[in-house]
Amino acid sequence: MTAAPRPGPVSSPIMLDGSAGGAVCVVGAGYVGLVTAVCLADNGRDVRLVEVEPTRLGMLQQGRSPIHEPGLDRLLAGVVDQGRLRVTGDMAAALRGAGVVLIAVGTPPTEDGGADLAQVRTALDAAIRHAEPGTVLAIKSTIPPGTTASLNRTLVRERLPLVMCPEFLREGSALSDFNRPARVVIGGDDAEAVERVAALFGHLDAPIIRTDPTSAEMIKYGTNSFLALKISFINEISHLCELTGADVDAVADGMGLDPRVGRAFLGAGLGFGGSCFPKDVRALDHTASYHGQTMWMLKAAIEVNAQQRRRFVAKVRDSLGGNLQDCRIAVLGLSFKPGTDDMRQAPAVDIIRHLEDLGASVSATDPVAIPKAAPLLGATRLVEDAYECVRDADAVVLVTEWPEFAALDWVRVAASVRRRVVVDGRNVLDGHALAAMGFAYRSVGRRAILPD
Ligand code: UGA
Asked: Of 135, 115, 269, which is closest to residue 192 (Cα–Cα)?
C-alpha cells in the first residue's frame, strides 16, 4: 500500500519527556493494555485504562487482575491504590487531558485467517470523538501491514496523528519484558507524534526503532512469524531425529551455539499455541495473499504445527500398544505454556479431544488453567491435584512444562499409576530417573528410555 499523506502537526506543544497533555489513556484491558497501563503507572505516569466489559471493569476497579500474570496482581493493586492508575468505562472522562492514547484492543482472527479490526475501529472512533486537539493516537494492537496507513487517511481530516507502536510482551513474563525490552518500535509519519510516544518508553534501556507505520507493523508480524518458523523447523528436525536416532536437544544446543542461529525458540515439543503465533502467522499469510503473494514457509509452519500434535497423540497410542480404547490417560498441563492460564490455541485441547476420540478417558490437571479449560473440555475429568490426576493412569502425558510437574514425587506417582508409561511432550522430565523407577519414557525427537 502507498504511504499515507502526512497529517497536520500536533497543535499543542510536546515536551520530549512525553508529559504534554499529562496523562496516558490506554484503551482495552487485555494482556497488552493491562500490562502496559500498570507498568506505565508504576513508572510514575498518570494512566487511565478504559475497559468496556463490565466484569473485567469491576475486578480492575477493585485492583484485581482478571488474568493470571506473575507479579501483576501486586503491582496493579499498588497503582490503583495510589491513584496512579484509574480504570473506567467512560472514554470521554479518560481522554480528558490525555497526551497519548494507546489503543490495545483485540484483533481476533476472522474465519478466513485475516485480522478482525472491528474493535480497533470502534476504539479509534471513540478516541476521535473525545480526544482534545493535539492528542497523539497510537496503536498497540497487532494489525496487518498497511492498516495504520489506511486508517491515517481518515484521521488526516481530524488532524490527529496516528502512530503504530507494536508490542513484544510474552505471557508469563510480561512485566519483565515491558521493563527490559529488546527494542521499542515506533512507526509514524509525524515526527513530533513519534517522539511523544517514544518518550513514554524513553526511560527503558533499549534501542528505539523509528520507522514508518507499515514497517512497524511488518516488524511485529515478521518477528512472531519467524519465531513460529523456528519452532516448526526444530519440530520437523525432531521427527527426523526420531527416524535417524539423533537427539533433538543436542542438535538444538549445537545449532543454537552458532550466534547466527541462536538457541531461543528451538525448543522441540508440541509446537506453538496461544493468542499470538497461530493467529499472526495466518494473518500474515492472509495479507500476503491479498497482495497476490503465496507465503509457502508460513503455510508449512502452520501445517507442521498441527502435525506435531497429531504425531504426539500417535506416540501416546503406540506407547500403550496401539489401542487407546478404555485406557486412562493423565494429562499434566493445560495452558498453552507455563506461567499463564490462557487456553487459546492450547495444544492440550486438540490433544485431549483426539485422545478421547480414540476411546481414552482423560484426567487432566494444571496449576491455574482449570477454570478456563473447563468450558472447552466437557468430557475430561479436571482435577486440581496432580497426584489425584495420575491415580490409576495407564499413561502420564506431559503437555505443558510447568516446573511443578518436573518437581513431582515421581516415586509416589509410580506407586499410584496402573501402568508405568510417561510421554513427555516438552522434553523436561528426567527420563533416566523415570526409567530407574520402572517407567517407559518417551519424549519428542529423542530415543525412548525403557526400564531395565
Ligand atoms: C509471543 C511473542 O514471544 C511475544 O514477543 C509477542 O509479544 C506475543 O507473542 C504477542 O504477539 O502478543 P507468547 O504467545 O506469550 O508471546 O508466548 P511465547 O513464549 O512466544 O510462546 C509461544 C508458543 O510457542 C507457546 O505455545 C510455546 O510453548 C511455544 N514455544 C516457544 C515452543 O514450542 N518452543 C520454543 O522453543 C518456544
From this structure: 135
Residue type, 323: N
The burial of 326, by beta-carbon neighbours within 10 Å (0-12 exposed, 13-18 middle, 19 or more buried), is given as: exposed
Q: Which ligand 1 atom sits closest to the C-alpha of 345?
A: 26
C-alpha cell at 88: 473506567
Q: What residue ranges define each of the domains in the chain, with the CATH number in brackets?
A: 23-211 (3.40.50.720), 222-302 (1.10.1040.10)
Residue 163 bridge partners (DSSP): 138
431 touches 441 (CB < 8 A): yes
Q: Is 299 in the pocket of ligand 1 (CB under 6 A)?
A: no
Q: How many whole angstroms separate alpha carbon 274 and alpha carbon 251?
A: 26
Distances (CA, A) of 186 to 148, 164, 218, 430: 12, 6, 12, 44
DSSP, collapsed to helix, strand or coil, labels residue 257 as coil
CA distance 91 to 74: 26
Specify whether the CB–CB gap between 396 and 324 falls below 8 A. no
Catalytic residue from among 25, 276, 327, 389: 276
Q: Phi/psi of residue 247, each to 5°?
A: -110, 115
Q: Does the reported pTM lie above 0.90?
A: yes
Average pLDDT over residues 53-78: 93
Report d(CA 350, CA 354) in Å as an integer: 6
Q: For residue 137, give the H/E element and its range.
A: strand 136-139
Q: Please write the tens of the pLDDT for every residue from 256-304.
A: 999 999 999 999 999 999 999 999 999 999 999 999 999 999 999 999 9
- What is the length of the chain? 452
CA 109, 370, 305, 280 torsion-angle sign = positive
440 C-beta closer than 6 A to ligand 1: no
274 Cα: distance to centroid of ligand 1 (angstroms): 7
Is the CB of 337 within 6 Å of ligand 1? yes
Q: Which neighbouring-strand residues pair with 381?
A: 363
- 419 CB less than 6 Å from ligand 1? no
Q: Measure 445 CA to ligand 1 centroid, in angstroms.
A: 20
Distances in whole angstroms, Cα of residue 16 to Cα of each of 5, 32, 195, 196, 200: 24, 24, 7, 6, 9
Collapse the DSSP code of 69 into the 3-class scheme (helix H, G, I; strand E, B; otherwise coil) and give the result: coil
Residue 281 contacts residue 144 (beta carbons within 8 Å): no
